[in-house]
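Fig. S4 source data, part A: sequence.
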Amino acid sequence: MAAAPAPKPKAVPNPANYSAGVQTIFVTPDEDGMRVDRWFEARFPGLSFSHIQRIVRKGEVRVNSRRTEPKSRLVAGQAVRIPPLQLEAPKVREEAPQAMKDREFLRSITLSEDDDVLVLNKPAGLAVQGGSGVKENIDDMLESLRAPHADAQRPRLVHRLDKDTAGCLLVAKTRFAAAALAKTFRTRAARKIYWALVAGVPKPKQGRISTYLAKYEDEEDSYMRIAKHGEKDAVHAVTYYAVVETSAQKLAWISLKPVTGRTHQLRAHMAFVGNPIIGDPKYFNIENWELPGGIQNRLHLLARRIVVPHPRGGTIDISAPLPPHMKQSWDLLGLEVDRYDPIVDAPEED
C-alpha cells in the first residue's frame, strides 16, 4: 500500500506585506493634541512616513467619519478609522563598533526603562548634547539604542542637565512619549529635586528665591547673571530650597526644587543668596575660600529625583544615587543620605 502523500505546509502570511484590515482606534487623553501623522508614527512604528501621508491625503483615514489632513490635531475621544496597513519589511542597518560600545555604556547607567521611557543616571562631566570642544555626549550615544531596522524611532532627550551635574536624565524612546513628555515639561508638571553641597548655611533654612536671569557672554565664557524685571532677554526664575543637614556651620547639604527651568538656575540662585555650590567653576564667588580637606573641587550638584506622569498612565518616580565625588564628601562630613528631605513639601507653583 502506497504511503499517503505528505500534507502541504500551510501558507504563512508574509510579514513584509501584512494587512491588519479596517480597524477603529479611539484617541486617548494622552494623545490629545497630537498631529494625525505623528499619531500614526507612534501607533504604527512599522509604517513609513510617506505611506502615512499618502493614506491620509487619499481620504482612507477618517476621524469621526470625516476626512482629515496629516497636520490636523486630534482630540481625545475621537474615533480614527484605520485602513488596511501595508507594513514594509524593515531594512537592517549595519552597526559600527562604536555603537555597540555606546549602547553598553548607556545600559550601565540606566536607572529605569520601559517601551516608552528611559531614565539615565548621567555621570558628572559628561555633556548631554554636543557643542564646541565636546567630544562625547549623551545625545549622540542615543543613536546606538535605535533598533537595527531603518524605520526605527530614535530615542530623544526631553530635558537637559549641565555637563558637570550628575543624576536623573529622562529620555523618550518613541515619538509618542516625546510629545507627551515635552508637554509635561512645558506645563511644569514635571517635579525635579536636586541635592547640593553649599558654602555656609542659608538663612532662613527654608525659603524661596525669585529673580530675573539674563545671559552674559564675553570672549572667554558665558553665564547667567541676575537681571532686573523688564530688562531685555531677562527671564523669571523661581527656586525653593531647604537645608537638610549642616557640617560645623561651614557647609550645608541643601535640597532644591526649581519651579522654572532656566539655564544654570540653581547655580546662579545659590551664588545670589551667598551660598554658592561647592566646586562650581562659574558661580563660586567667595574670596579666600579654602576647600575642606578631602573634598574634591568638582561641582556638588545632583539631579536627585524626577517625578513625572508616564505617557501611558501612572507615574515615573526615579531617584539617582550620589556620584562618587559627592559620596566621598558626604562620607567625610558624616552626612546621612537617608535623612528626611524637607523639600518634598515645597509648593509646585511660582
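Fig. S4 source data, part B ends here. Residues 191-345 form a domain with the Pseudouridine synthase fold (CATH 3.30.2350.10).
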